[in-house]
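Format notes (please read before filing issues)

Several people have asked whether sequences and structure tokens are stored in separate files. They are not. Every record keeps both together, in the order shown below: the sequence lines, then the token lines. Line labels are part of the format and must not be stripped during preprocessing.
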Amino acid sequence: MALASLLAVLVLTTAYANYSEEMLTRNTVRLALAWYTVALCLMMRLTPTDWSAASYLGWLVRWCWTWAIVCFLVHLTMAFHFYHGWSHAHAFEQTRQVSGTGEGIYALYLFMGVWLCDATWWWIRPKEHADRSPWIDRALHAFLLFIVFNGMIVFETGFIRWAGVVLFCLLPTAWISTRGVPRLRLS
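Then the structure lines:
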């Protein structure tokens, strides 16, 4: 299903959305954010056993988390190919023009690296991943959500900004709905 969703975004964007490199790049990050949101909402419902991916729910969340980073890596590949000619210097300058500081590109690299390491850790050492301190999750998600917030709300307009507002209203609602449920790991 996850691979099918990625292929559908690529094929449908190419065939039906007045194909443009911009739409292809944007739609892959939108898919990554959709998988990220699903994974995050489901993470709030995992038990300690689920975190070790020993249950169907844990296995499902781990796959959603993994497909989110896979789609994000496809997005980055397209952005560097179509917009930056595989040049870090060009990406740095573009980031400077948009955000006022080119060093922001390093936050994106850190975002990618942290997320990729977390997903990899969950696959390679699921028991250790499950047993880690909740503070690691808090710090990880605070950082990832900070980047997502900036990417969707601060630096975007129109539909994407509103989708970001909905996302950032949905997440606290999902979290509040799990309050009092002993299986919540982020509190």
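For reference, the curators noted about this record: The radius of gyration is 17 Å. The mean pLDDT is 86.
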